User: Fold these one by one.
Assistant:
Number 1:
Amino acid sequence: MSYVRAEEILPEDLIKAIQQYVSGKSIYIPCKEKKEWGSQTKTRQYYRKRNEEIRWKYAGGISVRSLAGEYSLSEKSIQRILRADVLPTGDARPDRNGRQGSERQIL
């Protein structure tokens, strides 16, 4: 993020009005349209793929403890990921015993 001098873009009367509240300080003015988290980078895709791998490995029989070690996450974080019942495709994800959705046990 780069700084822009107020004098270069704002009318003088607006600058005076802002100076009544804050003078000589830097202020942040957010964008009107808020961008969704991860929309500017591939971070969101990375975590989606990682979490999907974790779900499928767990369904394949790998323990929460092993997954926590492999992905350098706490067991609690792995459990949170596993509680997401739906795959990004919209399909219900089976657990390691082949149960789906409401049939699944809570971790």
Note: The chain has a mean pLDDT of 81.
Number 2:
Amino acid sequence: MELKIIPHPSKCRYRGIHGDWLVVPSQKYKTRKFPMAEYRIKLMAFNSAAVIAVGIVASIVTSTIVASNAYRSKFANAEIAQQSIIVKGKATKRVRSDQGDWWITVKGTGESIQSAHETLDIGMKRVDSFLTDKGFFNDEITRGAISTTVFYDRDFDGNKTRDVIEYELSQHIGVSTTEVGKIAATAGEVTDLLKDGIFVIGGTPSYTYSGVSDVKVQILANAAQNARTRAEEVTNKAGGSVSAIKDIRQGVIQITTPNSTRVSSYGIHDTSTIMKDVSVVVTVEFGISGS
């Protein structure tokens, strides 16, 4: 059987199915018949191709979006990772010297070597008594070798002759003790022996602290903490927060007189005072997050 198609005034096409045949009008409004199975195969193939094409397009679009987001995320993370703040931190600890060193020079002069030596010997014994009276022990006192200086006469032209005018003998006395207060109290009094005719010269005491290595560890930690505190004060006001340390550089240890502002790129090791300030500056780079 066939389904006859009558053209409509609006020129619409009409398709009908009759049995196992598909009936469609031709361009001249004549009916044509197609086997139903063939039509279904062609329709399924077309639909499959359309689905595959849509899937490929969707996959490409999705991959592009994911890659774009990943790139933007990677760039943003790299930019955040590069954000940092560099600050300096300082720490100071006051210490008391635990070692004092001092020297005294005694001289004896005479027209002969013997008389010069006698004068020197008198002076040395007088200084020994002075130090003993001040509480110093024998194991805290050392005596150096005697040095001799000969002074020659000169002629009318100013040239030296072989005639000896005077001999001068000198000897050093070293004082080393952990009782630094004794040195401080005695150093300014030794020249009083000049009143007794003793030719004596008092040196400048030297005070040192043996625990600098231990203090160094402590003040480095304090300086780093001081740097973090400064960094947090700045970043918190800017709406960020300090993260991990990226880099830290230690400055030179400075050992100065109390409240001194002196610094040196080679470091200062002052020995003139019993009390000292041990200080250090560190430069720290911190990462910043959340800004």
Note: The chain has three domains: 1-82, 84-96+211-289, 99-208.
